[in-house]
Amino acid sequence: MTELATQLGFSRSRVSRAVARQEFRGVLARSACPRDARAAHAAVTDQGTVLLGRLSGIYEVTVRDSLTRFHVRAEQLEVLVQHLQPLVDHVDRPLALSACTRRQRPATFDALPHSTGHR
Predict the structure, then answer these.
(1) What is the DSSP string of 30-74?
(2) Distance separating alpha carbons of residues 3 and 9, to the nearest angstrom
(3) What is the pLDDT of residue 29?
(4) Alpha-carbon distance 95 to 3, whole Å?
(5) Which of 23, 29, 60, 102 shows a CA-CA span of 20 to 30 A to 4?
(6) Is the dihedral of CA 9, 14, 19, 22 positive or negative?
(7) Number of Cβ within a 10 Å radius of residue 30
(8) Measured distance CA(2)–CA(11) in Å, rounded
(9) Three-state secondary-structure class, residue 112
(10) What's the pTM?
(11) pLDDT for res 63
């Protein structure tokens, strides 16, 4: 959730609440991180993929209709399309699951370096 919050520019609690709502609706599934018990992963479910497919067509039509209201030349529109293409390409690519970046804690205390201070 922290990585998602950072990418979106939102607080972790805001992202966590939003994910919980979408999880309740069956659009997202949350799972525990195998490397960090405090972390969680969120993934789009099959139901969520279907919903995204339906909504992307509606969104595309809405954006296209909104842009036609502007008085722009064809070459200006082409530049805009070129700038927006990476967003379209991103939607078409499956999202890679983020690898847990925290290192796994040693299984036993024997693997930790010993300190010379008090215990």
Answers:
(1) EEE-SS-TT-EEEEE-HHHHHHHHHHHHHHHHHHHHHHHTS---H
(2) 10
(3) 93
(4) 13
(5) 60
(6) negative
(7) 14
(8) 8
(9) coil
(10) 0.54
(11) 79
Kindly report each contact of residues 31-37 with a partner whose C-beta sits within 8 Å and lies 24 or more positions away, as own/partner: 33/100, 34/100, 35/100, 35/102, 35/103, 35/104, 36/100, 36/102, 36/104
Find how far residue 77's CA is from the centre of its chain. 29
* Predicted pLDDT of residue 19: 92
Per-residue pLDDT of the chain (119 residues; tens, 9 = 90+): 888 888 888 898 999 999 999 999 999 999 988 888 888 888 899 999 999 888 888 888 887 788 778 777 878 878 887 887 777 666 555 454 455 554 444 444 344 444 444 44
Neighbouring residues of 15: CB distance < 8 A, sequence distance ≥ 6: 1, 4, 5, 8
- The continuous run of DSSP H or E covering 29 comes out as strand 28-32
3-class secondary structure, 90: helix
Tokens 């690898």 sit on residue: 99
